[in-house]
Amino acid sequence: MSPQLVLGGELVYHRGRVEEGGIFTLAGRYTGPNWVATLNAGKGGAHASYYHQANKQIQVGVEFEASTRTQETMFSFGYQFDIPEANMVFRGTLNSRWIVGAVLEKRLSPLPAVLTLGAFVNHRGNKVQCGLGVTVA
């Protein structure tokens, strides 16, 4: 449509021994100078997302998904904070299922390696996941 606006659609037809049917989905994306918004909608539900780069160090995003098949909705919020002076990146997320997560990446200069620390807490499921990793590139 334009350099900022993209629209599209998809039609999928499935025919099997037991079931037969079609799914039609519409999609759109609108891009601004430092943000992107998307929307997909069809018989199965809808999915919308928004990403915004506030400046060189801070990025945020939100996502909403609703399914007509499972009758569930989910909302997620995420952010990324870059600290170039310390060679570090911090990412975090929170969703409507009360799962909170964070990942810290530290580039180990002058080595070609990145140290990664991560933790996720599922408040409803009483679960905690922690991890430590080293990536050599």
TrEMBL record:
Record-stated family: Belongs to the Tom40 family.
Coiled-coil ranges per UniProt: none
Superkingdom of source: Eukaryota
UniProt gene name: Tomm40_0
Chief localisation class: mitochondrion
GO biological process, one term: protein import into mitochondrial matrix
GO MF annotation: an example: protein transmembrane transporter activity
Residue intervals passing through the bilayer: none
Phylogenetic placement of the source organism: Eukaryota, Metazoa, Chordata, Craniata, Vertebrata
Cell compartments where the protein resides: Mitochondrion outer membrane
Membrane topology, from the record: Multi-pass membrane protein
Protein name: TOM40 protein
